[in-house]
Amino acid sequence: MQATGKVGLFGAAGAAGQSIAAALGAAGxxxxxxxxxxxxxxxxxxRDPHAEIVTWNPDDPASIRAAAEGLQTVIYxxxxxxxxxxxxxPLMERTLAGVTAAGVERFILIGTVYPYGRAQGxxxxxxxxxxxxxxxxxxxLAQENLVLAAHGCNGLSTLVLRLPDFYGxxxxxxxxxxxxxxxxxxxxxxxxxPLDVPHEFIYLPDIGPVVEKLTRTPAAYGRWxxxxxxxxxxxxxxxxxxxxxxxxxxxxxxxxxxxxxLLGLFNPLMRxxxxxxxxxxxxxxxxxxxLTKLIGPIARTSYEEGIRHAFDAAREAAAPKAGxxxxxxxxx
Length: 332
Hints:
Elements: E1 7-10, H1 15-26, E2 31-35, H2 38-45, E3 51-55, H3 61-68, E4 73-76, H4 88-101, E5 106-111, H5 135-149, E6 157-162, E7 165-167, H6 177-185, E8 189-192, E9 199-203, H7 207-214, E10 223-226, E11 232-233, H8 235-245, E12 252-255, H9 257-264, H10 268-275, H11 278-281, H12 289-295, H13 303-324
């Protein structure tokens, strides 16, 4: 492992950025968080003496370069609205140009399973074909191809770290977040089905230490890697465990592909979920033995422990609401 200079987290305010920042801070490393708005960055990182807060305009090449000045490594976590995936490739082109102009040496894209398309048998290793059959998959593929093509150009080394679906405490964009909120409040959990297909999830706080290690592992660059979860679990089992922690029987409202299509007539987000519903019926499960061979053993939070942490956080978040109304205001 090599010692490294300062790391910048572009798109830092999300849950993955906070996990990586926590790992950098725990290692005693200074880092820069970059986002469009200062408020969310201050809320998430303002109390960490290791954090430098910088805002940027990702549409402005000069702003991108300025945000990257003085960094050795950039970790890219920038999201776009789910119905605007066509923005991913041009945004990546501008970002790569800006970080290269700033003299950044290493670039890590936190990626998804979308570029693979349908799995040709699970679990899959990194040699699985990248043959996306969806628009979102093609946009993600174009994005990561830009990253990989930049490796070795103008002093830049790049890699892609591919993750499965994630969950954890108070992560609103997780497929499972509604389960924990429902269990904590007694409400019915809204879920996307089917619920009985084994699916891989990663406990998001586990990501940070791996990414921190990759920032100081030169041998990792020039390819993509998998970071797997703790095996597979069905969504129904997640719900059973979460509601059991609350002493309740599961109360679930499940939207399958047909209902998503119907809801999509009125809700743009629901319409976008239809295309990716194949991942619920034909999940992609990752094999990360190559990464383990490179960096050594990887800590994996069990589903039982992760579900408990996520439920506890949801219950704590719901408590002030209940107190404000004098009782369990969200209970059914």
